[in-house]
Amino acid sequence: MFYYIPKENWPPNLPDLSLTENVWSIMAEAVYASPEPRTLMALERPLQKSGRSISLTTVQNLISSMHVRLKAVIRNKGDTVLTFRTNICTLS
């Protein structure tokens, strides 16, 4: 049986199934851990630093956990499964 999935719920729009969204989430957590940057120039350095600090292990965890995240999203009927970002960050 096929189910209609609205375009806004396609994988690129589901954070749990988008590796890029997960990387951005990890970077944002690092950038905003200290006082929030108020200008683009103030944002540039912590953003670059956070990007360089993402380990190969974290990237591998994102890739290898895709099947688990996909199953969780399906089980959750397309809704977001927020626990994965936290788990992936702690695996690095």
Concise summary:
The protein is mostly helical.
Mean pLDDT: 77
The count of β-strands is 0
Number of helices, where a helix is a run of at least 4 consecutive DSSP H or I residues: 5
In terms of per-residue confidence, which ranges show pLDDT below 50 for 5 or more consecutive residues? 88-92
What is the SS-derived class?
A: mainly alpha
Order of helices and strands: HHHHH
Largest sheet: none
User: C-alpha Rg, in Å?
Assistant: 15 Å
Query: How far apart, in Å, are the first and last alpha carbons?
Result: 39 Å
Work out the strand percent: under 5%
Mind explaining what this structure looks like?
The chain is mostly helical. It has one domain (8-91). The chain contains five helices and no strands. It has helices spanning 19-31, 40-53, 56-64, 66-75, 83-91. Helix 1 (19-31) crosses helix 2. The protein is elongated.
Note the main attributes of this structure.
92 residues; disordered C terminus; single chain; mainly alpha; 5 helices; 60% helix
